[in-house]
Design a protein that fits this description.
Elements: H1 6-11, H2 14-24, E1 26-33, E2 36-43, E3 46-53, E4 58-65, H3 69-72
Antiparallel strand pairs: 1-2, 2-3, 3-4
């Protein structure tokens, strides 16, 4: 099966993106800031961060990326 790229991921609908993250993504770790949890997943060649609103008990959004400051914030989890 060909590797998925960030470009391929961005072409999917929101529903397909979430489905891919939760079925094929590898959970790396989570960060907690007040009432928000951020869960980091890796899918083949890129990362996806899922934002979860604890107070409202719902997903607040997602951010996909390859490198950068977002990934750096999780570096202490990967030691």
């Amino acid at each position: 099966m060909p590797r998925k790229t960030l470009y391929d991921f961005k072409l999917l609908s929101d529903h397909e993106q979430y489905d891919l993250v939760f079925t094929e993504g590898l959970f790396i770790g989570a960060l907690i800031e007040e009432n928000t949890r951020y869960a980091l997943y890796v899918i083949d060649l890129f990362f996806v961060e899922i934002e979860y609103d604890v107070a409202r008990n719902r997903i607040g959004g997602k951010t996909s990326f390859v490198t950068g400051n977002k990934l750096n914030s999780y570096s202490r989890l990967m030691d």
